[in-house]
UniProtKB/TrEMBL annotation:
Transmembrane segments: none annotated. The keyword Oxidoreductase applies. It comes from Kitasatospora putterlickiae. The keyword Ion transport does not apply. Gene3D superfamilies: NADP-dependent oxidoreductase domain. This is Aldo/keto reductase. Keywords: Oxidoreductase.
Amino acid sequence: MTGMTNTEITAQIDRQTFALGGDLTVRRIGYGTMRLADTPDIKPTEAVVWHAPTPRAAALDVLRAAVENGVQLIDTADSYALGGSEELIAEALHPYAQDVVVATKVGMTRPSPSEWVPIGHPAYIRQQAELSLRRLRVERIDLLQLHRIDPEVPLADQIGALKQLQDEGKVRHIGLSEVTVEELEQALEIAPIATVQNWYNLATRQHDAVVDFTAERGIAFMPFFPIAIGGHAGEDSPVLEVAREVGATPAQTALAWLLHRSPNILPIPGTTSGKHLVENLGALAIELTDEQYARLDGIAAAEAAKAAEAEATAGE
C-alpha cells in the first residue's frame, strides 16, 4: 500500500471487514470446515462429511494456520462428522483468540452418511445448541445458524427456539441457511437475523435477490461453495482472462468477484490444504475494475442459459 493516503488505506481496510450483527468485526474471507471430514482425497462434491478427518494432525494444522494467517470467522455445524468438526475446532483453537468468531449450525440430523434431514423441533434445536456449547468449550456461541428450515415445523417455533437461546445468553447472534427472501422476512418478524448462509458463486446465482435484500438491511451474506467448480474456469474463460490481468489464480478471482458483488458478502471457502488456504485469503488484496467485474458477471447469464437448455432437453 505504498504511496496510499491514510484515507485510502482506511477505505481499503474497511472493504476487507464486516461487522456481524453490528458488533463482531471480521475479515471478509472466513474458513468453512465442512471439508475437514473424511479423507483429504475425496472430491468436495462426493464428500459425505461423516467421519472425523484423517489424518487428524493435518486438519488441526490447517485450522491453526487459518487463524495465524488472519482468518477471524470459522464456520462449522453440529452435523459435520456428527459433532466431530466442532470438537476439532476446540482442540485446535481453544482458548479462542479474542478476535476469532466461531459460527455453528443446528437443526440437521444425519441418520446415515447419505442423509441430511432437517429437524426444527424447538426442544431438539435447544438440545443441539447445548451440545455445541460443550463441544466448542464455550459459554456462548458467537453465531448460531439454523442449518435448514424444517417444513414440518412452524417457522416461528424454530426461530423462537433460537431467540430463547439468545435471551438466555447462550447465543450472541442468530443466522439462517439456504433461505429465500420471503422466509427471511418472516424470520425477521420474530428475531434479529445477523447472517444468511446460502449456496452462491459465479455460476450459482439463484440467490441474487437474497444478496440484495441482506445488503439493504446490513445482514451478512455468507456464500458456501463460493469457488464454483466447472468449465467456466477453463482455458479462454472470462475467469482465467481476468485472473491473468490481475495476477491472480482463478480461485482468487472468483472470490474477488464475490467481494466486489456486495460489501456484505463474506465467503467461507473450505480446504484441507494450507497452500490453498493462503491462496484464498489473497483474494482480499485483489481489486477488480468495473469492466472486469462485468465480464465475470456475464458468466451467470451463460450458466443460466445452459441450465435452461439442459432442462428443456430433458423434458423432450
